[in-house]
# Entry
Amino acid sequence: VVSLGKVSDGWNKAETNTAVGGDAASSFEPSSRQGIENIFAVRIEGPGYMKFQWRIESSLGNSKDSIGCYMDDFNNPLVSLNQTGLAESPEWGDNWVFIPPGYHSVYFIFDKNSKHPSTAYLDHIQYAKAQPGKPTFVDFPSDVINVELGETLALPIRNADGFPFPKFQWRVNEVDIPQANDSVFHLESAWDFDSANYSVVLSNRYGVVNSHAVKVNVVGTGNPSLAEGLDAGNLKFLNRGQNSWVKISSPNSEGQDAVMSSSSDDEVSSRLLTMIEGPGVLEFAWKIDGSDFDGGELGFYINDSEVSVLKSKSDWKKTTHFIASGKQKLEWTFRLGVMDVGEYKGYLDALQFYTPSNSQPVLTTQPKGVNVEGLEDVSLEVATEGWPIPELQWFHDGVPIKGANNE
# Structure
């Protein structure tokens, strides 16, 4: 076991009442230091299973600090932790990882980037050699997990067995979750409809074992005033940026209110978040108030991809978007450009999400012919209506164009 801290003292033994045996390995960094990586290394012979506990303690509940567990290199962590707890919140995270045959170096890296004092703790490292056989049991840290609305759910396995190392298939309400095949199940931005029973199936060539179910409760109401201002009482909303969106009185908007974000600083942004389950249609109105932007924008994103944007002062504009099936993350981001001077305001209102009645496809906007020279790009656009969402296929002289399926 080696502590590889360079700029700071690295990792040291520390007493803590919440640790197993009353002490743990810890790495402290003050508010004055950022960009620090403190490394704790262990050399192990596999195959086997390693278990350990860790936590991050900070004066701020959420920060940019993290711990990662790596094997042999620093490219991809086996597991990671990027949520901090306050000093009076002594919750430890359980971890369980595979160590393949041969000698391996396991690294625990405390990555300190925030402007707040933070301490990483590591404790109760255990290692057991793997024995050939089918998986026979799966243990979780708890049978019930409560996660705040909008936070990341991490559901780890505390202990299991079986060799060759088992494959994983996570399930929700006894239905397989696509591409959920890691030893830790992660769910970004947990929402109320994610409250359910989660389980995992472990399998290798010798057999299969099904875990018991863990009940996940997503708690929290979001910001009700934002839902009121948007006229969307059936949805929940959260502020996620440095600036906030707030409900305001707005005589020229629907319902006499709206939500607004104001800014005079290009280094900060405001983000409004909600999650929905598609398919359906989303409608909302928006506008920008202030001088013409110079690089700033009010943007609408679906699953982190920008789908619509305003870049200049405007009156209220209504926009409509088809929402695909499944869980979808929706965000509205308002920010300024580096040359913007003065105060600017972004507004949102009249947000609706609904499932239309079935109807046949209709082209509401036909493509327009264009004349181009040389190697210029050509852009053709259409607009459609109909439900379910119409499937599109572009043609060239009567022949389908491969991959040309959007508006």
In short: The longest strand covers residues 36-58. The domain at 224-354 is CATH 2.60.120.260 (Jelly Rolls). The helical segments are 224-229.
